[in-house]
Amino acid sequence: MNQNKLSFESENLQVDWIGFNIQGLINRKQVEQIANYLFRIFGFNSTLIKRINGKWKSESLNYDKLNKFHVSFRHHEYDPEAKSFWVGTKIYFSGKNAAQIYKGIRAQKFDWNIFDLTKTSLARFDLCYFRETKPTEQKGDLELFMEESCQKIRAKSKRRHASWCGNSKGLLMKIGSRLSSNHYRVYEKNHGLEFELELKNQLVKSFQKLLVDNRIKEFEHDLSKHFYKVSLNSFTVNSCYTDWLVNCVRKTVEKQTLDSFLITDYLENSNVKSFAEKEYLFRFFQFLTFIRRFKGVKQYNGDQVYYFITFPVSDFLQFISVPDAARKRQYQLKKILNFLLSLQKLDPIVEIFSDASFRSSVIFPYLAVVKEGKSWVAKISISQRLYSYSYPFFLPKEFLRYKDKYEMEVKLKIIQSLSVSSLEKNFYVEEFLNQFSIPNKKRTQIKKLIIELFDQLKSHKLIETEFGIVRKNGLSITVKQLTPLLLTKSKNIFFHEILYSSF
Q1: Quick one: how far is CA 211 from the chain centroid?
Q2: Where exactly are the structural domains of the chain?
Q3: Of all residues in the chain, what percent carry a pLDDT higher than 70?
Q4: So what's the pLDDT on residue 391?
Q5: Which of 181, 306, 390, 402 could be stapled to 408 by a disulfide with Cβ–Cβ 3.0 to 4.6 Å?
Q6: Strand positions, DSSP E, 315-397
Q7: How many CB atoms lie within 10 A of CB 110?
Q8: CA–CA distance, 69 with 204 (Å, rounded to integer)
């Protein structure tokens, strides 16, 4: 399956400012032509701002009380006394006005010929991400996040400015000067936190050609990547306020070959108790990993997009390493056939996934398993959202298959512990081991398997090498190597995900 490019919509990024500079344009009639176009085609009222007797004064160019949007034109003329040497007109769309005009640009309804492109430059472009406040956040968390982020910046560069303060509207953090190419602001707004990046100067001009050539997909992909790169270099990621950033990094980093990895999504609400539910969930992980090997045929059902794939059921059996013994294989084949047919009734199982992609509309609108000759063949339609989905977690090949129920239980529990938004993970080892009424020899085997799997996570550089251990007596220690005896005495094992970036 192909991964989609980043887009403003997929990343929930909003356009908050668009500014253009037109060198040498001070002719009022030419300005009015642009204003009239924006008024007629997009419903923008407009204002012309000029400097008269040392003061900026504005006048209306176009106005209709029914119009909801506004654009400003600002004349700049040669004025040595005011140290104003640039001559031309600046056009800017702010807030909702920027979002509206960009909507027209994105739909390729904007006629760039209204500008003299030889003299026009993209002067400013603001992108922002809004993160809603969550009930789990504590008083003082935001102050700590801002202070740690500022410390991170100061430690990396003495020249890059970073500060935070409080005002009547709430807390505000500023990164970089207003004159810099990247000026970042983070501030409280309407029950949430706004992350706003202001791009200017030669930096924003480097994106101009993509915009005016209507190469919107490339423009949004490149600008989104830049937004995340600057964000990652600016903020601490060990905070609840950067969960959105961590999520993006996880989904965009290049992964190893899909054939050798088990994929999964966030499992914040992974409340599965019975063995049958656990087995079904693990099989679902295997199936999601398996079908990503196929290139689907694009289909349409009304305004919904799906991808159609076919595969021999025996290929899936081989993928999950079902034994070749005829009797065993027939039993497993029957189980797999029932599993495939059940995929159209996923509501109970998908509730454990945090992402809405697994809960929206119908994931598999068409599914049939038919006999062709001596072989069973599966024919499946997959919703576009799931087909193109970027999974945040890839587990090593050692997690892909299991030999018995105990191995499945161990692997699933580690998967559940790992597949959460926080970089710090918690494996409740005492609670996990206490669920088994088994001989000590078998219990020791399970402990050794836990250690082996954590070692695999370390060898693949998916987690840090150190573990935080909370013992049953309440004492805490830090170790680099787990042992069966240590697991016996432990209540919790804390470990940390290593976050990689492709930006």
Answers
A1: 23
A2: 13-248, 256-400, 422-503
A3: 91
A4: 87
A5: 402
A6: 366-372, 375-383, 393-395
A7: 20
A8: 24
